[in-house]
Amino acid sequence: MSKFTTLEQHASYGIGLQMGQQLADRPFDGLDITAVAAGLAAAYNEQAPEVTDEQIRAAFGVISERMQAAEAEKAEALAEAGELFLTENAKRAEVTVTASGLQYEVLVAAEGEKPTTASTVRTHYHGTLIDGTVFDSSYQRGEPAEFPVSGVIAGWTEALQLMAVGSKLRLFVPHNLAYGERGAGNAIAPFSTLVFDVELLAIL
């Protein structure tokens, strides 16, 4: 049974949970939750801090450098993995490589009008990382997506102009034609090569 029984304790505990979740979203190696609680208590109770401002600034600087180095190392590994994947993938006979470096495989062929950069289209799609992790899928949502051809990542803008209504391509998109060095949210890390199955349903 919880030792926190009053409304005030429940609210206070909730504040702590929220702060803990924020810390967990971007932790660093060695984060000491006991020290976090001590700092919180000292500030709230207006007590003299046990660690000087100078020590805190120095620690923040070192930790920040460590985190940046770790992110850079991760990004470099992802870029190398993507390049290796694309190099091997390009050897397959069914894969076409365009001048930009975009790779695609025709899953369903169709003839007819193709979109331009001025078009708006309706598509179904399924997006994964090269390890198969799904990060977005209109198929899973059960609802197609509509968007301007010029309003998506460069790899999609190029590929859509190769497609007629009813066609379906599997795209292998290098990071520079996707979300590049920024990535996208928590699902797509910087320098990620992406794989999409894209079905063109209509030109609107």
TrEMBL record:
PROSITE patterns found in the cross-reference section: FKBP_PPIASE (PS50059)
Class of enzymatic activity (EC top level): isomerase
Catalytic activity from the UniProt record: [protein]-peptidylproline (omega=180) = [protein]-peptidylproline (omega=0)
InterPro entries in alphabetical order: PPIase_dom_sf, PPIase_FKBP_dom, PPIase_FKBP_N, PPIase_FKBP_N_sf
Matches recorded under Pfam families: FKBP_C, FKBP_N
Keywords: Isomerase, Rotamase
EC number in record: 5.2.1.8
PPIase FKBP-type domain boundaries: 118-204
UniProt keyword Lyase present: no
Gene Ontology molecular function: isomerase activity
Domain of life: Bacteria
NCBIfam families given in the database record: PRK11570.1 (NF008602)
Similarity comment: family membership: Belongs to the FKBP-type PPIase family.
Name listed for the protein in its UniProt record: Peptidyl-prolyl cis-trans isomerase
